[in-house]
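Subject: Protein entry, chain in single-letter code together with its fold tokens

Category: Structural biology, sequence-to-fold work with a learned token vocabulary.

Notation: Tokens come from a learned vocabulary of local backbone shapes, not from coordinates.

Start of record: The labelled sequence and token lines come straight after this line.
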Amino acid sequence: MRSLAFLAVMVLTACGSGVTADKPVTYAANAVSVLENPDHGPQLCAAMAESLPPQCGGPDIVGWDWSKVQHESVEGTKWGHYRVVGTWDGSRLTLTESPGAVQGTPKERRFDSPCPVPEGGWRPVDPAKTTQEALEATQRRLENEAAVGGVWLDQSYLDSIPGYDGSKPEWAEKYANDPAKLVLNVKFTGDMTGREAWIRESWGGALCVSRAQRSQEALRQIQESIGDDLSQPFTSTSVDIMKEQVVAGVWVADEELQQRLEDKYGEGVVLLQAALKPVQ
């Protein structure tokens, strides 16, 4: 599906913090990739390059035994997806339990509209401007507008199609991205006067215009500079326009670092998303 919901920059690195002065802390990760190739031993990966064999790198794992886990293997590269538990010394994970299968699957993120559903439901107001061409032209206009806080498509109408789950390409081609049924969502900062009328110059389909506290450009700038504030390598960064946050993926997060980010950018502007969570 076409969506402007996220801007993501994946950076595959290693290390982090999370070791006390007395002893390493035990952490768990429910769904991480582990990969070994001729260049390095078993390592944790936040994301893998889509090649065959795949490529990635991250912190070393001590105590890993491929003979005890199911895995893929191509040209000397071994990999798989697991739940892991171990102690973290600031740069590597030492297993304290045998790796297990990933528990559960993450729920798909929804991009619903924040506006109330109009009486009679969402529908076009000008069918002549409710086309794929009109939608793309409107999106291009919005890309050059500094006050835009986010643009996304609400396609919740797909929920009403019996049997549709988005997993089959032929279904997506047939039902998704229907200009007459989707809702174009746009958030703006500052004065909202005339915003909807301006969009209506090019778009006649369903439309939800709402207020943003931070522009998408401001969030992008934080995303580009966040590495200087983390004091540790990070695994990924992305902009969540729904929550108006910059999400920074790290191996281990701590309250002190999160507080420093809040002091600089404001409460809730930067969210640390740790792959390894402390075991309670």
Remarks:
- The two ends are 39 Å apart (CA to CA).
- The chain has three domains: 16-95, 109-212, 217-278.
